[in-house]
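ok so for the tutorial part 2 we go from a plain amino acid sequence to predicted structure tokens. step 1 is just haveing the sequence, like this:
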Amino acid sequence: MQTAWSEFAEKRKAYTAEYQLLNQAFNKNDDTIIVSLYAIQETIFNNIKSDLTTYLREKLQNFAITVTGKVVEGETKKMLYTNREKLEHLMEKNPVLKEMKERLGLDTDF
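step 2 — the prediction. this is what the tokens look like for a chain of 110 residues:
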């Protein structure tokens, strides 16, 4: 199964986005293959899904194989824009900064 998947990925090497998607890990439950996708990859996956399914079915001589995609939520990271947000973030990581700020009477709004 992994060999057939890799062969299909190599055929799509010219298409970088598809190749990256096909090199991600996938889960296999009986005859169902589940690919974890980010929302942005869903369209790419839907475009190659039928070709991939057909290739795997023919290569493995198993016409019960189905390939599905499951959209997973990516870890969102809060962007720090203001000086106050940056300092608060750094103080969470290193509490000594809070003590220094208080001792030196520093102001984040300059």
